[in-house]
Amino acid sequence: MTVVPFEEVPQTRRWWARGAYAAVVCAALVPIVAAGVAGAVALLLTAAGGLVVTVAGIYWFLISRGFLRWGALALAVLAPLVVLFLFIQAGLLLEVMITVGLVFVALVCARAALREPRAGSKMTEYPAPKPKHPFVVMNPRSGGGKVVKFELQRKAEELGAEVALLEGPGKVDVAALARDAVARGADLLGVAGGDGTQALVAGIAAEHNLPFLVISAGTRNHFALDLGLDREDPTACLDALRDGVELHVDLGRINGRTFVNNSSFGVYAEVVQSPEYRDDKAGTVLQMLPDLIKGAKGARLHAQIDGSTVDGPQAVLVSNGPYGSHDLAGLGRRTRLDRGMLGAVALSASTTREAVGLLRRATKRGLIQRTSVEVVVDADVPEIPVGVDGEALLLPTPVRCTIEPAALRVVVPRNRPGVPPAQPALDLIRLREVAWGHRTAVHAAA
User: Does 211 reside within a domain?
Assistant: First the structure.
């Protein structure tokens, strides 16, 4: 994590941060003025208690099963309603609304203070030669049938592309299809499908130094999102075949296999391995999380990140380029894909206190975020489950993740939505640094 020294923080951001603290102070003074010191203390304790009960209820919902799980969920929902009812009973509804408004102002100021400059956030564009023999793999089942819905095969063929559909019984060897196309003279490889299929073909394109076309026909399209492509209309991605530019992006490798988004170990990887995951993702996650969070299942991991060793994390996420500092699950955004660095997050939260601290972003205990050119994950078993771009794999230990800078020539439309600026995390530690210039030991080490 990069920390900007206090002296380098622009004056405007410093005052935004101080404005956030001022709004919080005013929010605390409103009930004091309305109800007196004793009444305000009681109200603040009531609000704090409601918040603690809500967060604890969510945590126990995740780690429990049966009646206890649903009781915890009911508690998490009812706690804020009870607090609101008590405020109304005390005749302080107007004061509560003012306080909530001031808290909202504090959040706006905090976001403005924590937003980093966008300078250098856009990837360099290079001229893209028009392909003569493009070859595109399309998965009709991916993304709920987007290939058929948007008539991607017909539109790609009209632009001169050869299309191979992944249909029929049995599993199709996508890598073999791509290598055969290269042998027959294909000068561009593309994929309309999920990120796992994208990664396989991207590796072959990089191996032969061929341009690679991403068509956002998958379910989540994380790779397409971070390339600034249109995820709602995959047809727009085909414009790259007639008016495109190149982006030279990094590729991650895990034990020799390529990945475009991330590789996950521990909790998430164990969940992905479940046979029920494909049919019922939410139900499978809820069923397995209690054992995984408590450490009752899965191998004990050891991760080597940027020269330091993390012993026994519950989850490790290694990404092709770092995600935003607030994204612990690899479901957010990467502003660039050409930094030449892996992002790494190791997470441990075995108690309610640690979970609450991480949710509030008021503590770094249990969380390690780094960038590195290599991450090695080992365990006390010969092989461990790994989620590679959402695909479930079993890999021999130790598992080695590396980065290949600018290895992939991605062709994108000249006109595309682009990558919006990343929203800053509401990091209380960082906000304090921006406002007052006090760097914590944890941030200094990071």
Answer: yes
